[in-house]
Q: What sequence folds into this?
């Protein structure tokens, strides 16, 4: 068990190093993975949505990463009204729509758990899926070689992570929850 934890820690450090460097250029396979996840989630930040819409949305950050988080409908101000856009599920969600439409970098707010999908390792491109909560460091939850065509596995990892976000005990962070599971097994 100790050896497995050390390997897991080492792989997460390597993943952080590789993803921080990013890729010089996104390969068509990497672009296909981004498009696949965005298409499966269906709604993107600033999309037109029905008035009562609440759900998951995606948006691209800095060209080579994708954020997946909770969103809700926000009314656009205007003379005729009646239009609603998907914004981040925070009180200032309409501001996130406006910033995104103006091509500003929209950072996921600390109060909103989210997933980050990005890439690294120019020699052998890899896809990484990270879980972010509050101001804690991202926790690696999935990685794979892009050459292995991980569409289905990546999709399953996104679904499992989104399920965790919806069902997680609000008083515990992911690390606290995982430590509780480890202690219960001991």
A:
């Amino acid at each position: 068990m100790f050896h497995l934890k050390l390997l897991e820690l080492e792989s997460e450090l390597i993943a952080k190093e590789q993803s921080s460097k990013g890729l010089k250029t996104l390969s068509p396979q990497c672009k296909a993975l981004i498009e696949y996840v965005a298409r499966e989630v269906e709604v993107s930040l600033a999309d037109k949505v029905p008035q009562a819409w609440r759900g998951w949305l995606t948006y691209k950050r800095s060209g080579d990463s994708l954020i997946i988080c909770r969103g809700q409908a926000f009314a656009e101000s205007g003379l005729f009204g009646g239009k609603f856009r998907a914004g981040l599920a925070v009180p200032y969600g309409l501001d996130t729509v406006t910033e995104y439409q103006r091509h500003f970098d929209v950072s996921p707010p600390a109060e909103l758990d989210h997933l980050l999908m990005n890439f690294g390792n120019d020699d052998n491109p890899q896809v990484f899926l990270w879980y972010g909560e509050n101001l804690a460091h991202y926790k690696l939850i999935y990685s794979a070689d892009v050459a292995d065509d991980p569409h289905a596995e990546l999709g399953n990892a996104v679904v499992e992570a989104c399920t965790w976000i919806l069902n997680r005990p609000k008083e515990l962070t992911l690390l606290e929850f995982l430590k509780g599971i480890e202690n219960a097994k001991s």
